[in-house]
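Researcher: I'm preparing a figure for a lab meeting and need a structural model of a single chain. I don't have an experimental structure, so a prediction will have to do for now. The sequence is pasted below. Please return the structure as tokens so I can convert it later.
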Amino acid sequence: MPAPAPRKNHKVLGRLSLPERTFVADALRTETVGGVLLLAAAIAALIWANTPIRESYESVRDFHVGPAALGLDLSIEHWAADGLLAVFFFVAGIELKRELVAGDLRDPRAAALPVVAALSGMAVPALVYTLVNVTGGGSFDGWAVPTATDIAFALAVLAVIGTSLPSSLRAFLLTLAVVDDLFAILIIAVFFTENLNFAALGGAAVGLGVFWLLLRRGVRGWYVYVPLALVIWGLMYNSGVHATIAGVAMGLMLRCTTRKDEGEQRSPGERIEHLVRPLSAGLAVPLFALFSAGVAVSGGALGEVFTRPETLGVVLGLVVGKAVGIFGGTWLTARFTRASLSDDLAWPDVFAVSSLAGIGFTVSLLIGELAFAGDKALTDEVKAAVLMGSLIAAVLSGVLLKIRNAKYRRLWEDEERDEDLDGIPDIYEQDNPAYHLRMAEIHERKAAEHRRLAEVTGGASEGNDGPA
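Model: Understood. Here is the structure written out token by token.
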């Protein structure tokens, strides 16, 4: 009886397979563009809300539109937060499903590191917020505000710093953010749901059941799913549960595995994500930022961010809590389990990315609106705290990433090297005998060229040394 094969450590931050690496690269490029648009929308909102035309901003933001008979007579701000963000969470649901069935989260042992890191990165900021407000006598209602990570903004910072970051580190940030989104959704569903309308909730559940049944039977056509999705969203909104939960639920129902026997090149989830992601990153999230980030900012208001316990707790939670929580969770998991870092990465790299996760813009703003819904002034102050905390986290992580950029560039060059010019990075061919044969031929050809060059050069030198 042969001896059992030794168990290998699961290097969660190790080099990705080539197909996964390509998928992650494509996703990151799209999210980076979305992050830039999100940043532009936030800046536009701040300018609009802090100039003499700020009254027009408030008028547009508070303008109500929609069928009142269906309970959907909402302000533009609410349409952005409850409607457009459902598209964002729909994409997040697809990403989560893909990670569960085809990514790192498929293997519980390999998923341990990003899951523990994400949980620690939510628990520690909540603890920091709570401690600050216990000490300062503030409100505990905002404990969940600093728990979120904005992946679009974080990836935009990575794009500004440079494109030579190792793909495994970027993939870790993406997986971390997906898990973070999942728990943020659970927090919204559990802690910010009041006065349930069970009839509407039951109707939404029936609609989701029909949605799932149509998917299982292979029914196709946007004209079937889009109207059904709108009905489910409307019922979910009227049920008292935050309407974005409908988007997540529908995203999780999509199949994210390919059926090779049917000749599928891409799964339905991947195809739909490819179609919907530009709508999410290019329209839904930026418009949400435009109508949520417009808070009046003055020198006094910025000073109060660091003196009021609720706002100080948000800033410290994002800047300190996120970095300590994610880095500490990653280190403890790598120390006491079989999961480990890639040999190419160092702990300062992980700390830099942990600091980067302190950018908690989109979902943090949403949770801030839900947590302090009855206090407009405090809601605006918390929004200012989210902006300030995210800015500090972006600057701090940017400095750390810049320091590490030289190492990132060397790692990137190793991953991209293709000396045999076959279109596949050499690092993915090192175990292929044909690759080594090609490389031997290439080296022999280069050596022969060097010998010929030396002969020509030597001959010319002899001729020049002769008598005139």
